[in-house]
Design brief:
The complex is a heterotrimer. By secondary structure, chain A is mainly alpha-helical. Helix content of chain A is 77%, strand content 1%. Chain A has one domain: Orthogonal Bundle (ABC transporter involved in vitamin B12 uptake, BtuC), CATH 1.10.3470. In chain A, helix 7 packs across helix 9, helix 11 crosses helix 12 and helix 11 runs parallel beside helix 14. Chain A is globular, with a radius of gyration of 20 Å. By secondary structure, chain B is an alpha/beta fold. Chain B has a single domain, classed as P-loop containing nucleotide triphosphate hydrolases (Rossmann fold, 3-Layer(aba) Sandwich), CATH 3.40.50.300. Chain B contains nine helices and ten strands. Chain B is globular. In chain C, strand 1 and strand 2 form a beta hairpin. The longest helix of chain C is centred in the first third of the chain and has 31 residues. In chain C, 71% of the residues lie in helices and 3% in strands. Chain C contains ten helices and two strands; from the N terminus they run ααααββαααααα. The termini of chain C are far apart. Chain C has a single domain, classed as ABC transporter involved in vitamin B12 uptake, BtuC. The chains are: A mainly alpha, B alpha/beta, C mainly alpha. Chains A and C meet through helix 5, helix 11 and helix 13 of A and helix 4, helix 8 and helix 10 of C.
Chain lengths: 324, 238, 287
């Protein structure tokens, strides 16, 4: 990373750390926590759909599997949620492996369809699985509090944990982007024949992207559950659209896209929830749908794309000068 | 020593036999030209060698290892590179990035790969456009980038698939110079070409395909005088 | 013993509907090389149109059918021209996201306009059943099966026996060369979308006779039809129909032998298995 970026990040992290000192309103902390969680989820989706170009249309399934694993282990077996989080990572990655191994050999469309099918199947199964709470969901026991129990009364600890997860996500995406993995994924996204001709094992790298993706979604799932102290199939498995939208608005395939997108969308979403509660459900999803279509047609690269196209025009002029 | 050896390689598509029992031996360090009229099976043969198609029968041996049936990326790892007839460079990345991806095959560290890519960039005279995005390049530059990318994978043999097509005379001359430079690095070259005045002078050996069969093999002079070859082309124009 | 014939029968009629939906999907996929993820949601739209025509205008679905089909055809062209066209030739990611966005939009617009409540058309002309021996044939289901067959046949004739149909085929096979022989690729794509949505309109109106109407009704039909297209291959109308039948039968039979909720698991697993071993589908030709 360039020195400029280090300073920028240090400044940003510093800002995030001192933010709660000045702003104590629980509602604003809640929005911040949601921004962090959605950024992490957006980065998770971005790795496989944006960088590797393999569109995952049911991404919430990894969130849900991670969250449910932790919840079930906690409620049924009394297992500490931190350990449960690792178990959640494990199950989520296994699931990603189960989808990827058969489907990565095929065209991207088949993979997209498979992801839609998988999330439907898992949703159906969980809704009917009484042991896992069925359609009613699982309420977390309110016995133990504190860091060891991953359960807190106030919002501040959640804020810091969510922030840390987001930073982990950014570290992951920076690592991928600046290593050969990132370059390989971009190649795979654009032209798999070229990838083959350059010695890239395409299914292997798609799988690597997938596993990173599943990992980030799983830890978000665990946190989400611990934060809400409740999970049900609807909260866990129907979040695919906002996860995608956050990245699409910010800039699919870009490193900072999910952060920017979450920063823009989540406050709007949460505020809209106040004004449109009641028939709120349909309206915000309605807007999401319209936004996806509009952004995708008008500015497919999102906000980051708009920034990039300005710098590109400058570079293009430079080339034309050389040519002439 | 034969670097690449084909034994009775046959490739069929349904009822059509695109490559018919072709034998071929390529010596290390040579420039070999593969010519033939349209539809002769040249690109299909390339695709068989590079692993994009699996031959129905026959064997392909490379550097002492049997490679028919292997996947394209495995063959590339065995140090056999190729370029494409329709250029497949990455439009969204810069020239340097494109070449780096080739370098990553043998050097996973980003900084070292970048150094290597810069060397290849320099070798191919691409320094002045190293930061230009693929989509902004001319066709001639795109082809050179694809060649550079192939070189960056440290191959022992490169398959050039109509690397001259679409180039103007100046670009063509630069391409020929580049090919000689590649040969001087010790890389063996097998190239498919349609432009006779280019391929004839630079090839050590020419193989002629027609309708999937190898009909002649020899020096450029021998081949251009051969009746069967002339008939296949219905008059070779120069 | 008899129950299984009843199950098979309903599997067949359902399968024919899946087949019809798949034909439209396969048409768009084959001609434009694009997956319309919103296909069955347009069917949901036509179901609501039928319902509204019945509820507000006292028009039976059989009579509103021709109007709705024409309406859907027009909507298809409008959607193509204003949205889809902008993603043609671009990245696949953009194309998929565009129609996926339409899915989200349509489902939630329906919920917004007409609420999430399940609606039903009561006592349409095509209601009731009659007995053939010991089997009960439901008129509405039978009608939708027949309508699917007829529509499929009409589309087949159009594609294979008319000049416009040949132009569509040409565009499907070689989009680049089509303009060279005077075919406007844009016009072909518009027509593909028009026919695609019109055919799914037929399916929707016929379904409205006996099926629950609600915003998310398209979702399962969409996935099942995608499975059918994957099984039946693209560019093959008989293939899509046969594959739809297969899906319908598998769904009905596995719902009968295993628990109904898990029948989708069977169908989707079937998808994964088929797509692994035969990427061109069970009945498909080329790809």
């Amino acid at each position: 990373m360039q020195k400029r970026s280090y300073i920028g990040w240090a400044f940003f992290i510093g800002l995030l750390l001192v933010f709660p000192i000045f702003v104590k309103a629980p509602y604003i902390l809640h929005i911040s926590i949601m921004i962090f969680i959605y950024t992490t989820l957006g980065v998770s989706w971005n790795i496989i759909s944006g960088f590797a170009g393999q569109l995952s249309l049911g991404h919430s399934v990894f969130l849900g599997v991670g969250g449910y694993t932790t919840a079930i282990l906690l409620v049924k077996f009394g297992i500490n949620p931190w350990i449960g989080m690792f178990a959640g990572i494990f199950t989520s990655v296994i699931l990603s492996w189960m989808i990827g191994v058969p489907c990565f050999r095929l065209q991207g469309r088949y993979f997209a369809i498979a992801t839609m099918a998988i999330v439907q199947i898992v949703y159906l199964v969980i809704t009917r699985w009484e042991y896992a709470g069925g359609a009613r969901g699982i309420y977390y026991p309110l016995r133990n509090w504190g860091l060891k129990a991953f359960t807190f009364r106030g919002k501040l600890p959640y804020y810091f944990i969510a922030m840390s997860m987001m930073l982990i996500a950014m570290v992951v995406i920076y690592y991928i982007e600046n290593s050969h993995i990132g370059y390989y994924l971009k190649t795979i996204r654009e032209n798999t024949d070229a990838a083959d001709a350059l010695g890239i094992n395409v299914p292997k790298y798609k799988m690597i992207a997938m596993m990173f993706s599943a990992f980030l979604a799983a830890i978000s799932g665990t946190l989400y559950g611990q934060y809400l102290l409740f999970i049900d199939p609807d909260t866990m498995f129907l979040l695919s659209v906002p996860i995608m939208l956050v990245t699409i608005i910010g800039g699919i395939g870009s490193t900072l896209g999910p952060l920017i997108g979450a920063g823009v969308l989540i406050p709007v979403q949460e505020i809209a929830r106040i004004y449109w509660s009641g028939s709120g459900r349909a309206i915000d999803q309605l807007i999401y749908g319209s936004l996806i279509v509009i952004v995708v047609i008008l500015q497919p690269k999102g906000i980051m794309g708009m920034i990039d196209s300005i710098t590109d025009k400058y570079k293009k002029r430079k080339y034309k000068l050389i040519e002439n | 020593m034969n670097l690449l050896e084909l034994k009775a390689v046959t490739k069929k598509f349904g009822g059509l036999t695109a490559v018919n029992s072709v034998d071929m031996s390529i010596e290390k360090g040579k420039i070999v030209g593969l010519i033939g009229p349209n539809g002769a099976g040249k690109t299909t043969l390339f695709n068989c060698i590079a692993g994009y198609y699996h031959p129905n029968s026959g064997e392909i041996w490379y550097d002492g290892v049997r490679i028919d049936g292997m996947k394209p990326h495995e063959i590339c790892k065995k140090k056999l590179a190729r370029t494409f007839q329709i250029v497949k460079i990455l439009n969204k990345l810069t020239v340097l990035d494109n070449i780096m991806i080739g370098a990553f095959l043998n050097e996973k560290n980003v900084n070292l790969a970048k150094k290597k890519a810069k060397k290849v960039l320099n070798f191919c005279n691409l320094d002045n456009i190293s930061d230009v995005k693929g989509s902004d390049l001319t066709i001639g530059d795109k082809k050179r980038v694809e060649v550079a990318r192939a070189i960056a994978t440290d191959p022992k043999l490169i398959l050039f698939d109509e690397v001259m097509a679409g180039l103007n005379p100046k670009e063509g001359k630069e391409a020929i110079e580049l090919i000689y430079k590649v040969r001087d690095l010790g890389i063996t070259i097998l190239m498919v070409e349609h432009v006779m005045e280019i391929i004839m002078p630079i090839s050590d050996q020419i193989i002629v395909l027609n309708l999937g069969k190898k009909i002649m093999e020899g020096t450029a002079e021998e081949v251009s005088k051969n009746d069967e070859v002339i008939n296949a082309y219905l008059g070779v124009k120069t | 013993m008899l129950i299984i014939f009843q199950v098979i029968l309903s599997g067949i009629t359902a399968g024919l509907v899946y087949g019809l939906i798949s034909i439209g999907l396969s048409l768009i996929w084959g001609i434009m090389d694009m997956v319309n993820f919103a296909h069955a949601d347009f069917m949901m739209l036509s179901m609501y149109f039928a319902y509204l025509a019945w509820a507000k205008l006292a028009l039976d679905p059989i009579f509103s059918l021709p109007i709705i089909v024409i309406l859907m055809f027009i909507i298809g062209i409008l959607v193509y021209r204003n949205i889809v066209r902008k993603t043609v030739g671009g990245e696949i990611v953009t194309q998929i996201l565009a129609t996926f966005g339409i899915v989200v939009f349509l489902q939630n617009m329906a919920q917004f306009l007409w609420s999430a409540n399940y609606q039903m058309i009561k006592n349409p002309i095509a209601s009731g059943s009659f007995a053939v021996g010991d089997l009960f044939l439901h008129k509405a289901q039978l009608l939708s099966g027949v309508a699917s067959l007829i529509t499929a046949y009409l589309i087949w004739i159009f594609i294979h026996k008319t000049k416009l149909g040949w132009a569509l085929q040409a565009t499907a096979q070689n989009r680049g060369a089509a303009p060279l022989i005077g075919i406007s690729v844009n016009k072909m794509f518009s027509i593909a979308w028009g026919i695609g949505l019109a055919s799914v309109g037929v399916a929707g109106v016929m379904l409205a006779n006996y099926y629950y109407i609600y915003p998310q009704v398209g979702a399962t039909f969409q996935l099942l039809s995608l499975v059918a297209v994957a099984l039946g291959g693209f560019g093959s109308i008989p293939g899509a129909l046969l594959a739809g039948l297969t899906v319908g039968l598998v769904e009905a039979l596995s719902g009968y032998f295993i628990e109904p909720a898990y029948k989708y698991v069977v169908v989707f697993s079937l998808y994964i298995i088929v797509v692994l071993f035969r990427p061109q589908g069970l009945f498909g030709t080329h790809h």
